[in-house]
Specification:
single chain; 112 residues; globular
Length: 112
Amino acid sequence: MTASTPSSDPAAPWRDEFRQQLEVFYAKLKLAPPYHSVEKAITQLTALVRILPADEQGRLAGNSENRRALYRKAFKESGLHQKHRGIIAGLAKSGQGHELPDECRHFLELFA
């Protein structure tokens, strides 16, 4: 589904992308995702997208930097950045964050 496809839920494509990025983030760091907090982050993202005006929602499709900022905001506001904090900060400092794909690496900024 693309952002231009009509949907009853404007957050659906971004929620799916965010969930996938979170799955890759934790898998590459070899950590079990804190499932309750992941679901809370996805709920937070959904709320953030739904309050955006329709034109801004549409612009998310073509602007990966805006989506990343929105994903980081949901990640932080949900408290997900507090889970595994010491472990992830240590992995980031040791350089193990380089194994993360570009679309997931931005989450490490919240652990610095």
